[in-house]
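Example (one chain per record):
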Amino acid sequence: MTSTSSSRSGGTDGAGRPGPLDRYAAQRATGALRGPHGCVYLHQGAVYCIECPAVADVGDRLATAGRLPAERWRRAADAAGADHDGGRFLLRQGWLTRGELEVCQLAALLDAACFVLPPRSAATSFTPGDAHWLGVVRPVAAAVLLAAVARRRAQLDRWGSWAAVDGAPVVPVAPDAQGRPPLTGRQRWLLAHADGVRTPGELARALGQSTFLTLLEVRRLAAAGRVRLPPAVGLPRRRPGTCRSERDPARPGADAPVWQLPDPAALETAAPDVALLVRLRTALEENL
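Predicted structure:
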C-alpha cells in the first residue's frame, strides 16, 4: 500500500510540521519514500540507500574505479532475490571487502542525499516494506543525514555567484600570467577531463565522482577564472585566493549499527571502524 504526502521530504513544512522523512524516521519505519528527485530507502527509521539519477551510484563508482566490472554488479542485483541481499552476494563472492562496500555506499548515499533531500514542497509517496536490492550496508540516522545535506548546501551557497556554471559545459580557460592561486589535485584532474561538452553533473557521472564535489569545484574554478561562464553571464568580481580548497558475511544490515557521520573533531573518540571509514571517505572524495 502506498501513502501520499504533499509536505516536504525532510525538515518541516510551511506550518512547522515535520516532513515525511522526519515522520517515518520517528516511527522507525521500513520502506521506500519516493519523491520527484529520487527514492529514499529506510530500515527501522534510518536511511540506508538513496536512488538518484543525477549522481553516480555505488556500481558506477566501483566500475569507473576499476574495482568491480559492471557485469558483476548486475549479477549481484539479479542474485539479490526477495531477500534483498545483493550486498551479501558481493561479499560472499569475494569481489569486494565489507570496508570497500561500506565506504563506497556511504559516499554514494551522501552525494545522492544532496539532490533528493532538499526541503522543498513536493508530493511524496511511501511504500511500507519496499527495500533496495543491495540490502542494508551502513544505515545513517535521518536527522544526521539532513544536517549533513544542509552543511553541504551552505558550502555551495558560499559560491552562489557562480551557480550559472552548474548547467553549462565545463570549458577550461588557459592560465595566464596573472599569478592566480595554484589548483588543487581535484581541480587539475577535473580540468584534464573537461571536454567542453559535458556539464559538471555529466562529467561527475561519467567519471564516477561525487556530483556535489564536482559542482563545488567547478564553481571555485569559475571564481578563479579557470573555466568559462555561459555567454550570457558576466563574471562576478573575484576575491584573491577564491580557488583555494576548503580544505558476514551475514546479510549486510540485519544488525548494522546506524552511523552518526561524526565530525572530524570527534574522530579521536569515535569507534575505530567509524573513524577509519570517515578517513577513507575523506581520502576518496578529496584526493585523487
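Caption: Confidence is low (pLDDT under 50) at residues 1-9, 238-252, 259-276, 284-288.
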